[in-house]
Design the sequence.
């Protein structure tokens, strides 16, 4: 209670305290039901606290006067547009009658709002690309703190919340929301996180706290990871095709090597036939010589037979002389075939190495592709 003769002292004290109380304050002196004196801080005022304003019977101040006791009441935002705590202290005359009240009104700030000016400038600078920290009440942005690297001029203090804004949706849902916003809305890709803030007394949502961070680096990293993944997929497809070609080459080389071996066998058979021809030629020559001897013994009767025997010897000699040529040719063929066989073996080994290398490259590409997918996943978390 305040004695009537102590009112002037209270007013003097209020004059001193008005701009010293954090968050602001309004002092008012009411006689009966009308404000006769008001002192507001520079940062806070209330329309109801004006000299000449009359109070309704249901106000805290009138109740305090009527009940002759100090009343403290938290006024919801719906009454004055801001949450307020009002303390009403009855003023008593010398007879103990209530003749008025000394009222004090202070904005009821959420602890986060009260500390916003202390923590927001620090946190805003903790992100590599900068950030924008803001706090809204139920209708507009009330506090904002840009960083040196990043600002949101389209969301200044006083900005009225729209239905599409995250803060508005958090207020409606009473749940935190974190969203990635593409460059179409604000000119660059952003991540916006917004959280509801509650009144400690009744757990009603009274404000939201949001932080906006640019995601240019993350988007660029994500694009690079996507391009890397696509490139690796193309390389992997080419490697698979190369591996398939190497496998086919290996198969063809194996078939060629088998064919060369068959040719070598055929040249060996030709040599056998040549040897057999040589043997026949020698035996034919012997038969021709024997025939000539017998023709000589027969005299004139065997003269014609002797001519034939001579021709047989000539054919035998010709056949015998042909055999070395055939042998020479077959030897040449065999040498060429042996050389081709060696090259085929080398090619076969090379194709096997190529196929193995292609498989190793393909395995490496798969590993790099897996790493690019992980890189892409990490980029999405930034």
Sequence:
């Amino acid at each position: 209670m305040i004695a009537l003769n102590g009112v002037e002292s209270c007013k003097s004290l209020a004059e001193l305290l008005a701009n010293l109380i954090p968050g602001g304050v309004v002092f008012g002196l009411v006689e009966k039901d009308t404000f006769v004196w008001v002192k507001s801080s520079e940062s806070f005022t209330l329309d109801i606290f004006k000299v000449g304003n009359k109070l309704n019977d249901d106000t805290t101040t009138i109740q305090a006067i009527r009940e002759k006791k100090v009343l403290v009441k938290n006024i919801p935002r719906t009454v004055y547009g801001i949450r307020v705590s009002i303390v009403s202290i009855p003023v008593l005359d010398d007879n103990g009658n209530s003749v008025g009240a000394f009222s004090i009104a202070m904005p009821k700030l959420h602890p986060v709002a009260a500390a916003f000016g202390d923590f927001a400038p620090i946190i805003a600078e903790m992100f590599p690309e900068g950030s924008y920290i803001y706090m809204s009440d139920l209708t507009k942005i009330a506090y904002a703190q840009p960083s040196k690297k990043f600002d949101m001029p389209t969301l200044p203090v006083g900005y009225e919340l729209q239905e599409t804004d995250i803060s508005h949706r958090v207020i409606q849902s009473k749940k935190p929301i974190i969203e990635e916003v593409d460059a179409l809305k604000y000119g660059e890709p952003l991540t916006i996180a917004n959280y509801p803030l509650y009144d400690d007394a009744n757990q009603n949502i009274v404000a939201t706290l949001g932080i906006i961070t640019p995601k240019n680096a993350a988007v660029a990293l994500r694009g690079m990871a996507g391009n890397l993944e696509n490139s690796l997929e193309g390389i992997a497809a080419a490697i698979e095709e190369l591996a398939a070609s190497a496998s086919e080459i290996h198969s063809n080389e194996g078939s060629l090597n088998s064919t060369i071996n068959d040719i070598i066998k055929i040249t060996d058979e030709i040599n056998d036939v040549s040897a057999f021809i040589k043997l026949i030629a020698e035996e034919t020559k012997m038969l021709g010589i024997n025939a000539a001897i017998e023709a000589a013994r027969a005299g004139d009767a065997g003269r014609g037979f002797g001519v034939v025997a001579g021709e047989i010897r000539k054919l035998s000699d010709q056949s015998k002389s042909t055999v070395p040529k055939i042998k020479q040719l077959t030897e040449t063929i065999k040498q060429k075939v042996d050389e081709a066989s060696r090259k085929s073996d080398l090619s076969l080994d090379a194709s096997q190495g190529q196929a193995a290398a292609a498989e190793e490259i393909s395995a490496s590409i798969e590993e790099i592709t897996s790493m690019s997918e992980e890189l892409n996943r990490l980029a999405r978390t930034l």
In short: The chain is about 55% helix and 20% strand. The CA atoms of residues 88 and 103 lie 4 Å apart.
